[in-house]
Prior knowledge:
This protein is mainly alpha-helical. The chain has helices spanning 2-7, 26-49, 52-79.
Amino acid sequence: MLGIWIARGGLRRDPGASRTASSFPPAVIFGHFLLAAVGLVVWIVYLLLDRDVLAWIAFGLLVPVAVLGFVMLARWIGRVPGPRGGRHVGQPQRVGR
């Protein structure tokens, strides 16, 4: 999803448009990334120091990361256009003329 988001313009604004190329607010994208990065760092520190409280903090950070990720995935799936040519999944394919 991140690769597609960047390929389609990321934070760039379209000329004459009031919104960015993405339907996601930048705070959601970067908040998801920053929470995940902080959680990973806390987990690595837990592995080095073996303090149980750090494991719980890392787990607590994982919950909003997962929620943001699922929300972004659900919104993204709803906006993905169907296959080219107007055929959608479940439609019968015409054979012959």
